[in-house]
Each structure stands twice: as structure tokens, then as C-alpha cells.
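Ticket #4471: complex job returned nothing on first submit. Input attached below:
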Amino acid sequence: MELDPVILSRFQFAFVVTFHIIFPAFTIGLAAWLATIEGMRLFTGNPVYRRIFDFWLKVFAVSFGMGVVTGIVMAFQFGTNWGVLAERTGSIQGPLLGYEAFTAFMLEATFFGVMLLGRNRVSPGFYFFACCMVSIGTMFSSFWILANNSWMQVPLGHEIVDGKIIPSDWQAIVLGPVMMVRWPHMLFAAFLTTAMCVSATGAWYLLRNVHRAEGRVTLHWGLALAAILIPVQMFFGRLAGLYVYKHQPAKFAAIEARWHEEQPATEVWLAWPDEAEKKNLFAIETPGVGSLIATGSWTAPVQGLSDFPEDDWPPVAIPFFGFRIMVGMGLIMLGISWLGNALRWRGTLETSRWFLWPTFLAFPTGFIAVISGWYTAEVGRQPWVVYGLLRTADAVTPSLAGGEVLVSLLTYTLFYTFFVSFGIWYIYKLLRQGPATPTVAVSNITPSRPLAYGDGIPVSTGSEGKD
Amino acid sequence: MEASSLALFWARVIALSILVYVLLDGFDLGVGILFGTTRDEMKRGQMMSAISPFWDGNETWLVVIGASLFAAFPPVYAVFLGAFYLPVLLMLIGLIFRGIAFEFRNHSRQLSWLWDHGFFYGSVLVAFVQGAAVGAMMRGIPTENGQYTGGAFTWLHPFPILTGIGLVLGYALLGAGWLVLKSDGAVRDWARERVRPLVIGVLVVLGLAFVITMTVDAGAIAQNNLDQRSWGIAFPAVGLLALVGVHFFARKDADSLPYGLTAVFFIAAFLTLGVMMWPYMIPYGLTVADAAAPEASLRFFSYAGFVALPIITIYTIGVYWVFRGKIGQPQS
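Support reply: We reran it on our side without changes. The output follows.
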């Protein structure tokens, strides 16, 4: 059997990026959450914030470590498997990813050491500064990744000279209109992911009647944050949909499972898209709404897949279902966060077990939304790796044999499944165990000083190991 | 074709980043290698403590190198990673098992042996692959039109295997020097005892490599430029002197000298390779000028070198200062 390096490389990229994105989606929000909590502790001196901080720091350490190691793999994927892409578009993608390394990775990796092990070696103010640097690093990282990916989705600001892609307008590449919609969309997605996890953890403690003080604080913060963010996120999601309609009409048609041009266009809420027969089975649909969503008019015509050469069609099922799963998760987050804040306002949040259960069970909603949203965006861009410029089939490393990719794909599958399972298991154990009670040492490395908050005494700097 | 001044600037930045990476991640990889040679849990904990605050930042230099190559010399990035597809895979798996060990070994008593093995073998694997890549680069990598034209195992020869073993020993020497510098008591003495055998090991590998290139694998470094640049002989000479110095000072009560002089050895070895290969980035097919990205890309990216790099330098030094002194206390 002939092994196709393109298909196998695509599977491999999808696999390693899916495992990777779980961790940054969580840690971007968690880093900001930790910086906020540490700031609150500095500001109020309330010891409950220190216990919450120390607890989430341990969770952060495990997730961040896994984000780092799976991220290093990503840094090499373009070169190992997508050599033509790297060589052809390196003039644009290279500097964007280069800036990520220079502005984000070094920042977060270096201050991560201080955050994890330096509590007793620096002043409280500097420690807070280190937390902020880690958080800013994670956000810078998402900025450059989204700038890069937005350029792959809607390439602009370049010209083609002698067949080479030459950047001509960096402002359009880095701060283009598509980027300014998609970056906030990703950032809020990460914040929401963390907010739902934090809320779920708080709900879990209240359900089990343990760590009530910490559980209440985390639940309140998480639900309040989610309630504020989710409408903003939906607004940016709507803007992201409009850029797809404008710049990637074939992807838009695939997301909507619209096979032919329609006027007025029908909105297919749910169906089974039959890609062989080019039609939808078991469709639940409403006439006119499709036009409204795409154009704002009930009667405007909307293009379908048959308006484009079949060579340029993306797969239909993955963008169609991916988009609907993402929106569904968003609606669950909306329902839980708004209902939760209503209950809190009435003062019955902590006692409403019927509400705490779904809040606890909603912990993966953010992850599912992030992954299904990315699948929608990336699979919907096919058959292009850089939309309209370079086809995925032409982008693979020419020297690569199918057998090599099979070996690497199996290796990644085996090892990732193994260590990510353990990582998630350890995070689960940490979450189940919960924050340390005030009288017990918190960290296994730095002794906690739960009664010494805000005392303003400069913390000793590493004298314990001096000669 | 002449390389533009921006292309030369980026070639220098990348060369410097590789050197910084080797000197920094070299010591924590080396500590990982030494970690596997003792079963004493107290020593192991202390060894981890001596590198925990630094390893992540050190390793990130590798990403900086990869990203800078992608940005400034895309064909080099594409050819290098294509040529070393399977070795790079092994290195990445090694880096994963190293990286997770720092957290995972504290979270499981029953399985800590597994993460400890992963930490040791991961470190050895990463060091070996990097050393083998250097050897394979010295032998030359076949390219055409900015893409790699060899096969999956073109790199595999006795000479790269020898250089791989050499770098495992060399990093272990850096690691031993670091433990002497940053830890105290039994671990410092233990590390100090390992310095001399490791120096001898590195010297043996260097001698064997010399013999191989003179005899069975005469093509290995035939195309290098050292013959035309006889002044370059100064670098291997300094390197050898530094190694002899490490050997000499190993038993003296000067905790910074083993690491410092090993670093001098690595710098000299790096400069020797530079003299042999310059101006080739992929020997002997792609030069700095051939591989440079368009000026518009280099110009935009140059702020990373002019602005971001000095800031990185400042806060990296700052964090090393925060964790100054002897820090290798055992983790409980």
C-alpha cells in the first residue's frame, strides 16, 4: 500500500496541535487568573487569596509544563513536514513566529521559574510583576499565533515577485482587520475556558462540602467573568463569521452545508451532510434565516458550494458540525453563567445543588468550543494551506517518505496519549484534593507563610543555601 | 552573491543564540545525564533543584533558534528539519520526557521511577541527537533548490554517532561543573569526582574523531575551510587548553572553574566549527546569502534582534541573579 505523506502529515499536524491547544487554551486564562488573584492578595491582604493562588499555581505548573513540551513540537512541525510551506511562506510566517519566540516564549519561560520557585527570594511586588510577565507572555504568544494563522486564512500585505512571496505591508499582515477580530475571539475563548474550569472546581467543592471558602470565591469569580465575557465573545464570533462570508465564501458554504446558491437562503440548523450525493439528509431548516445570518437581509441570495470549482471545496461535515458544536458550547456557557449570577444575586447560589451539578459537569465546554472552532477554521480553509496561494497537497516536504511520517505519527500518538493521560490524571488529583487548609504547608518546595500576608517585610533572598 | 548586512546580522544573532543555548541547556541536559548515574534520592532531588528554575528558559533558546531560522533563513529551517526528520522526532520525544519529569515526579510516588527514567533517557537522547546533527552537518547535507534531497537515514554514519556520544559526555561535563557551582556538600563532592573521568572521555572521543576523519571517513570534513584559514587553528588549541584546565582545577577548591572552563571549551569548539563551515549554513549547499529571507522580512524582524533580544538578555540575567548562590537544596 502506498502511504501518502500529505494525508499522514495532515493527521499528524491535527493530532499534535489538538493535544497542544488544550494546554495554552487553559494556561492563557489561568496565568491571567493567577496574576489577578496575586494582585488581589497584595491589595486586600486576605489570606484566602493566597491559598487559592498556591493551589492554582500547582495546577498551572503541570499544565504549563505540558503546554511547553507539546509547543516545542509545534515549533518544528512546519520544517519537518511542511518544508515547501516553510520555504515559500517563511518570508511572512517566519518573522511572525519568530516574534512569538522573542516576545512571548522567553518572557513566560524565564519568569515562570520565579513564579514557581522564587516566592521566598523576591519582594512581593516583584513576585506580582513576575506573575504579570508570565500572563503577558501567554497573551503575546496568542497574538503572534493568530496573526500568523489569520494571514494563512486571508493572506494580505504581500506581493509575488519572481514566484516568491515578498511581504510589502507589515501593518496589514500583523494588524489586519481579520486578525483584529480573530485574536480577541481566541483570547476570550481562552479566558472562558479557564472561567468554566474555575467555576466547575468551585461548584465541585461546594457539592462535596469541602473547601467552602475557596470554593465560593472561585465560583463567584468564574461565573462573573464568564457572564461578562460570553456576550462579548459572541459578538466577536459574529464578526469572525462575517469575515469568512466575505473572504472565504466556499468555507462559509461548507459551514452552512449549502450545496447550491439559494435566494432566499435556508438556514440548516442540523442535518447529515452527504458529501457523495451533495445534499443534506434529515435536515432541520428554516427558510430565509440563512440569508439573514449571512447578509442581514431576509431575501438576499447566498452562494453555495456549486458556485466554486469542486477542486476548491473544503470537506463539509467537519466545518458544519464543528461550528454547531462550538456555538452549542457557547450557549451552554451563556446559560450557566447568567443563571449562576442570577442565583447569586438572590443569594441561593451555594445551596442550589441542581445548578451546581451542571456547572461542575460544564468544565470541558471551553475546551470543546476551542477545538471545534479551530477545526471549523482549519478544515474549512482546505484544500489550501495558505488560502488561494498554496495548496496543502503542494506544501509537504518533498524528501519525506510516507513510511517516515507513519513512524512519527505513531510515535506521537503513543507518547502523547501516554503522558497527556498522566498529566490530566495529576491535574485531576490536584483539583480533587483542593487548596491546602490554612495550617498546612502548601507547596512542596517553598514553605507557605499563610499568616504573613502583606506584612511588608522583604523576603529573604536565597540565604538558606549560601556557603 | 554577497550577503546583505541584515542577513549577516541575523546569522550572527542565530550563531550567538546557538552558543547561549549550548552553554545553558547544556548544563541542565548534563545534570539530567548525571541524574541517571546515581540512585541516591537525596542527590537526585538536589540535582533537580539546581536546575528547576532555569531549565524552561534554557530550553526556550532552542525555540528561539528554530523560529529565527524560519524567519531569517527559511530554506535552512526547511532543509535542516527535513534532513533530520527522525532524529528531530527522537529529540522532541526526549525533550517531552525531560520537561514533564520536573512536575510529574512530585505527583506520584509509585511512578516516580518512570519519570526519573524518562528524565535521564530523555536528556541523553537530546544530547546525542544534537551531537549527531553536528557530525552530520560536518559531513555535508545534500540539497537542491532550497529543499533536502537525501533520504531518511542519510545522516547515519559512524562519525555522527561518535559526535553524538561526544556531546553526551560534553554536556555531562557542563552539568557536573554546574553542580559544583550551584550545590553544596555531598552532591558538590560527588559531581567534582565526575569531572576528571568526563574530561578524559571527551578527549578520547575527540581523538577518535580525529582518527576517523584521517582514515576511514576521509570525506567527512574534506570540504571544510580550516585549511585556508590557518589562523583558525587557534580555536581548537584554546579548547584543548581549557579542557586540560578543567582537569587540573577539578580537585581544587574553586567552584566556578569547572563550569567556566568547560564553557570556554565549548565556545572554542563552536568557533572551530564556525571557521570550518562559514559562510555555509547548510554545508555545503546553502550559504548565508543563498538562504536569506527577503530584505522586507529581515527588516521587519530586525526589531526582535535590536529591541527584544537585549531585553531578554536583561531579564534572563535578572532571573539568574534572583537564584544566585548555592541553590541545590533537596526537594522534599
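Confidence is low (pLDDT under 50) at residues 439-467 of chain A. Closing as resolved unless it happens again.
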